[in-house]
Amino acid sequence: GFGPFGEHAVNASWIAVQELEKLGLRDDVDLHVYEVPVEYQTVQRLIPALWKKHSPQLVVHVGVSGMATTVTLEKCGHNVGYKGLDNCHFCPGSQCCVEGGPECIDSVIDMDTVCKRVSALGLDVTVTISKDAGRYLCDFTYYTSLYQSRGRSAFVHVPPLGKPYTAEQLGRALQAIIEEMLD
Predict the structure, then answer these.
(1) Which one is catalytic: 39, 74, 97, 180?
(2) Which residues form the active site (predicted)?
(3) Domains detected in the chain
(4) Peptide bond preceding 164: is omega within 30 degrees of 0, i.e. cis?
(5) Catalytic residue of the set 97, 115, 138, 180
(6) Active site residue 168
(7) Collapsing DSSP states into helix, strand and coil, what is residue 51?
(8) Which of 32, 85, 103, 141 has a Cα at 20 to 30 A from 149?
(9) Is 3 within 8 Å of 14 (Cβ atoms)?
């Protein structure tokens, strides 16, 4: 999940991830949660360091989208087009994540299947698919992680708290989504 930024003084993604941590995942899954600062340079250091430290099977990033009204599974990350300033008033001069990297990297996770299966569970949360994580720190983080992992990453956008879901609903949705991704 991410820390506060802009009008998101409380970032719903971090709250949802903390709910997931309370709920946990299956017994055979080690869950590690981190609050990622909304800073390009920190992301460029932190994401590769976390992959190296944990050698995970899968990393699932969770971000808030002020425009979202559903829980949204992002299919891919984009390398270029980063013009928005972060919490440190910084933006990469190249406006890209990885110089010389591919324009777009798809997750190896079949998001369409995950969406269908989670929707069939009858949770009180709507899950949808997207191919554009927004060219800000969500997309930047996702691409960085996809590049690091050769596609073994996922990104889930959640709406702001109460618009329309509670923290508990978002935590349960994340639990179901991640368990489905692991399957």
Answers:
(1) 74
(2) 74, 138
(3) 12-182 (3.40.630.20)
(4) yes
(5) 138
(6) no
(7) helix
(8) 85
(9) yes
